[in-house]
Design goal:
single chain; 46% helix; alpha/beta; 11% strand
Length: 237
């Protein structure tokens, strides 16, 4: 720990601080109350949503598609899910309002049980920066719904790309006004930490049921079971 000198902590939001699949499942279940969709069906639709978002964000990062904010991609994903739900249950009817509500479910995500207390604990010792692929508007609603505490919340929308593009992590470095190695990037996704690492940020993996676990070749600075464990490793009482 003596070699890890941190002046600010940067947090991923989706999956790391909020349970994104849980919020989306709730939105999918509410798409059509008359639907006979079972739990496996909900999981199939959730996977469709996730694959659409991941694919389209990657296309934008790779320059194969013009930039669109997360709100637009969420609406696309909601339409994909609604069409698939109708195919699985022909009697189900998803109205335009229901599809729009599903798209907004991506902003109504519950925090993990340790999130709110963990952020409050860390906020007394470090400046906290949220860094999310969510749009500015979506991030505002996410923060309010989940009760997230920040000193600064940054959206990838300001870089007009998505993580793991280096331009997104550079937003946090610029706002902090610190060398990258004095910032600690915290995420439940190994791919996210690799992106931050490439720009010189220090990294901390926090285990979540919905995250992207490290591979044997990953070398992050810290590995934590939850935010309480992370705070302890950072010397925060």
């Amino acid at each position: 720990m003596a070699e890890l000198t941190i002046d600010a902590v940067v947090f991923d939001v989706l999956g790391t601080l909020v349970d994104e699949p849980a919020g989306l499942r709730a939105g999918i279940s509410a798409l059509d109350p008359s639907s006979n969709l079972d739990a496996p069906g909900t999981e199939r639709l959730l996977l469709l949503w996730q694959r659409h978002i991941e694919r389209e964000q990657r296309r934008i990062v790779d320059g194969d598609r013009p930039y669109l904010p997360s709100d637009a991609l969420d609406r696309e994903a909601a339409e994909v899910v609604a069409r698939a739900a109708g195919a699985e249950d022909p009697g189900a009817v998803a109205t335009p309002d229901a599809v729009e509500s599903l798209a907004r479910a991506a902003r109504r995500l519950p925090p993990w049980p340790d999130t709110v207390a963990g952020l409050a604990r860390l906020a007394g010792h470090f400046p906290l920066i949220g860094l999310s692929n969510a749009s500015r508007t979506a991030l505002l609603e996410l923060n309010a719904h989940a009760g997230l505490r920040w000193h600064q919340a940054l959206s990838a929308e300001d870089a007009r790309t998505y993580k793991p593009d280096p331009a997104v992590y550079r937003l946090a470095v610029t706002v902090a006004g610190l060398p990258p190695e004095r910032l600690l990037m915290v995420a439940a996704h190994a791919w996210d930490l690799r992106g931050a690492q490439a720009l010189g940020l220090r990294t901390a993996y926090v285990a979540r049921p919905v995250g992207d676990p490290p591979t044997p070749s990953d070398r992050f600075d810290l590995y934590a079971e939850d935010l309480a464990d992370l705070a302890g490793q950072l010397g925060v009482s």
